[in-house]
Design brief:
Blueprint: H1 2-30, H2 35-63, H3 71-108, H4 119-150, H5 155-170, H6 174-188, E1 197-200, E2 203-210, E3 214-218, E4 224-228, E5 235-237, E6 243-251, H7 257-273, E7 286-293, E8 298-306, H8 311-329
Antiparallel strand pairs: 1-2, 1-5, 2-3, 3-4, 6-8, 7-8
Length: 352
């Protein structure tokens, strides 16, 4: 019974090591730019499987007392190594892998933010994304240090050397340091977060992902933009607390403006009172009146204060409603036109 248990545990450990080792190599292969590199890492994965199986067979040959050389000798050396440092190394690898996989599961148990685009929901999504990346990085660093320590390396000297090297590299990695510092202050001051719609320079879109190093935007056409946080000099947030839709309506010069304004106010009140749209407003709309005297018509302006990200559907719906209402009222919506003036007609006098 003990022999079967030892055999089962050895094969199970070999299966786990082989599977995740090969998966890690395949993941590294996908990071390379060419398909030829993928093939190379796939072969390395097969080589890893071969090494793991060879180590398992050698260990079993020694543990079960099988007279198969050189497997028995290799198994004895492997047993001595495992007794000295190997079990600690395997334990560190196992705990690091377990902690890395548990981080998303633990964060998933936190209360999900509501779907509404409120500052609390945006901040929760952003803090969750940043916390996951920071915790994963911390687990990998601590696991790597413990692994090197159990392999017999002087971690203290390694950290001192890394500190000196990091100081030397910091001059070449100033932009990376700026990324992290700027990202930290963006998060601390709650300038924007995951779910917000922002305009950064010439790029605009919804914040799809945010880390201390970069901001990921997806624009209206589905294109994804990766912006280092150090490049975020000025950002315009279109969904901070509340939003506003500014709608301009043009009418012909011949129309009675007092009557047009009365129709406009009536349609605004109807729109604001519609049960299907009432929840999208934060306060009553405001008809400002005449905004400009254009080349072909009089421009009237209406303001709608809405919940975040609702200004665009509200503006589109009101334009549809006011167009139909003006048509029913017989009020002309002007179109661009020009009057051509040729000057005074040519007069010919007699005798000339």
């Amino acid at each position: 019974m003990a022999t079967l248990l030892q055999l089962a545990l050895t094969l199970l450990l070999a299966l786990v090591l082989g599977r995740y080792g090969a998966r890690a190599l395949n993941w590294l292969g996908r990071l390379t730019p060419t398909a030829r590199d993928d093939r190379l890492f796939q072969l390395l994965g097969y080589g890893w499987w071969g090494m793991v199986l060879l180590a398992a067979l050698s260990y079993l040959a020694h543990a079960l007392g099988l007279p198969h050389e050189p497997f028995a000798s290799w198994g004895k050396a492997l047993t001595l190594w495992l007794g000295a440092r190997g079990l600690a190394v395997l334990a560190v690898l196992g705990l690091t892998f377990l902690a890395y996989r548990l981080i998303p599961l633990l964060l998933a148990r936190l209360p999900e933010p509501e779907e509404a685009l409120t500052r609390e929901a945006v901040r929760r999504r952003t803090l969750r994304a940043v916390s996951e990346s920071v915790l994963k990085g911390t687990v990998l660093v601590l696991g790597g240090l413990l692994l090197l320590s159990n392999l017999g390396l002087n971690v203290t000297a390694l950290l001192a050397g890394a500190g000196v090297a990091g100081l030397a590299l910091s001059f070449a990695a100033q932009n990376l340091i700026r990324d992290f510092l700027n990202g930290f202050f963006i998060l601390l001051e709650d300038q924007y977060g995951v779910g917000d719609i922002v305009q950064i320079g010439n790029v605009g879109g919804q914040v799809e992902r945010f880390t201390l190093r970069l901001t990921v935007l997806r624009d209206l056409e589905g294109r994804v933009h990766f912006l280092p946080n150090s490049e975020v000099r000025q950002v315009t947030v279109l969904t901070q607390e509340w939003s506003r839709a500014v709608v301009d309506v043009s009418v012909a010069y011949k129309e009675d403006l007092d009557r047009v304004l009365a129709v406009l106010r009536d349609e605004v009140e109807r729109f604001h009172g519609d049960p299907e749209w009432r929840e999208r407003f934060t306060e009553a709309p405001e008809v400002l009146g005449v905004q400009a005297l254009g080349e072909s018509g009089v421009v009237l302006r209406v303001l709608f204060s809405t919940k975040p990200a609702q200004q665009w559907p509200v503006a589109r719906e009101f334009r549809r409603r006011i167009k139909n209402r003006l048509d029913r009222e017989g009020i002309e919506i002007p179109y661009p036109h020009q009057k051509v003036y040729f000057g005074e007609p040519l007069r010919l006098e007699k005798g000339v």
